[in-house]
Write a structure and sequence with these properties.
Layout lengths: L1 E5 L6 H18 L17 E6 L16 E8 L9 E8 L8 H16 L5 E6 L3 H5 L4 E2 L4 E3 L2 E8 L4
Parallel strand pairs: 4-5
Antiparallel strand pairs: 1-2, 2-3, 3-4, 5-8, 6-8, 7-8
């Protein structure tokens, strides 16, 4: 797996297309949730896009043979962009063809590491789909809210506090 971390301005046109297509394929089509994914947060100067690309043997059938497939993605937002005084990890996804291979856990581990590297001593707050509560709990997140509905999907707020 080849991991890359980039700001919006560092993304190539192809990378931007791949990540927006995969986000749309999963959050709009697969989850049958009609919403606008483009919220201007992607373009914040300190927003970071974490992308995991597959090696040629993992390449998706829709990719050109020499083009690695985008397998995993997460968006890291700086403090005060989504939540006051806290950073956030969102748009967490793994290509459906690779979900049973542990890629989600690799993605969350790297996303947390990068968030803590760029914004040390800052708590990470997420708006998680409720059915993924145990997944995020495995990465140290605790539930801090009741279930709420967002775009027709049950969600919860969860928090990772790096300072005990």
């Amino acid at each position: 797996m080849n991991w890359q971390l980039k700001t919006f301005k560092q993304l190539s046109v192809d990378q931007l297309y791949q990540l927006l297509k995969l986000r749309s394929d999963i959050f709009v089509v697969e989850q049958e949730c009609a919403y606008s994914d483009l919220d201007n947060l992607d373009r914040l100067p300190d927003c970071l896009h974490l992308m995991g690309y597959g090696t040629p043997e993992l390449t998706d059938k829709d990719q050109a043979p020499s083009e690695p497939a985008l397998i995993a993605y997460a968006r890291l937002l700086p403090p005060d962009s989504s939540y006051q005084a806290m950073s956030s990890i969102g748009r967490v996804l793994v290509n459906p063809d690779y979900r049973i291979k542990g890629m989600g856990h690799q993605l969350m581990q790297r996303a947390k590491e990068h968030a803590l590297q760029y914004w040390p001593d800052t708590a990470i707050k997420i708006g998680a789909q409720a059915h993924l509560e145990s997944f995020y709990a495995q990465h140290g997140f605790i539930t801090i809210s009741e279930v709420y509905m967002e775009d027709g999907i049950p969600h919860i707020h969860m928090l990772f506090n790096p300072i005990p």
